[in-house]
Amino acid sequence: MIQPLQPSDSEPRFACSNAWGSWWTEPTLRAGILDAVERIAIVILFTSFLNALVTSMLTSFQAGQAVVIGDIMLLITETMMVVLVLFRRCAKNLSLRPMDWGLAFSATCMSLLARPFAGQPHAWDAIAALLMIVGLSTQLYSKLTLGRRFGLVAANRGICISGPYRLVRHPIYLGYVMLHTGFFLLNPTAWNLCVFAILYTIKIPRILAEENLLGQDPDYRSYMQKVRSRLIPGLF
C-alpha cells in the first residue's frame, strides 16, 4: 500500500499564514491592525470634509465674498487632529470593545459632517467668532500639550497632567464645545443642528469610555482625584 506523503518538519512554515489565521485572538496584532484601520478611516473622512469646505471657501472667494473665519478655524483644528492621529505613538493599552470604537468613529464622523452656509450676516457673528477663537486656542494648546499621545479610540498612550489638563480632564473636548457652538451660530442650518445634537449625545458616553480604560492606570486614578471636572468646571 502506498502511504500518503507526510509534511516534513524541515519544510518552511510561513508565520504570516498562522498570524492571519488567528489575528483576532492575538491582542497585539489585533490592536495594530485596528489602529491602522482607524487611521485609514480618518483620512477618508477628512478628505470628504476638506473637499466640501474648500469648495465652499473657493465659491465664496470667486463671488467676491469674504471667507468666513469659522471655516478657516474648523479647517485648522481638524487638520491638526488628522496629523496627530497619523503620527501618534503606540498605545500602552488600546480598547478593543466594539462599543468604544463605535463611539469614537461616530463622534469623529459627525464632527466632519458639519458644513458651512453662505447666508446673511447675524447680530451675534462677532460673539460667535470670538467663541471660535477661544475654542480653537484651547484645542490647539491642549493638542500640543498632549502631542503624540493624541488618539480617537479609548487608549492609554501616556498620562498628561500639565497645561490645560490641570483644569479639566478633557480640555480638547471643551475646546470643541466652544468651537462648534461658534460655528453653528455662524452657520445656523437644520443640518448643522442635527449634526451637533447627535455629536454631543455621543460625546458623554465617549468620555466615560475613555476614563473607564484610563482608570485602569494608577497614575490616572490619582490624577482624577486632583482634577475633578471632566469637561466643564462645576458642571461635569
Distinctive features:
236 residues; mainly alpha; Four Helix Bundle (Hemerythrin (Met), subunit A); two-stranded antiparallel ribbon; 8 helices; 63% helix; 2% strand
Which SSEs are present, and which pair or pack?
Layout: H1 15-21, H2 27-62, H3 69-86, E1 93-94, H4 98-112, H5 125-146, E2 155-156, H6 171-186, H7 190-214, H8 218-226
Antiparallel strand pairs: 1-2
Helix pairs in contact: 2-3, 2-4, 3-5, 3-6, 4-7, 5-6
Structure notes:
By secondary structure, this protein is mostly helical. 28% of the residues are buried. Strands 1-2 form a two-stranded antiparallel ribbon. α2 runs antiparallel to α3 (69-86). It has one domain: Four Helix Bundle (Hemerythrin (Met), subunit A) (Up-down Bundle). Helices cover 63% and strands 2% of the residues. The protein is globular and about 55 Å long.
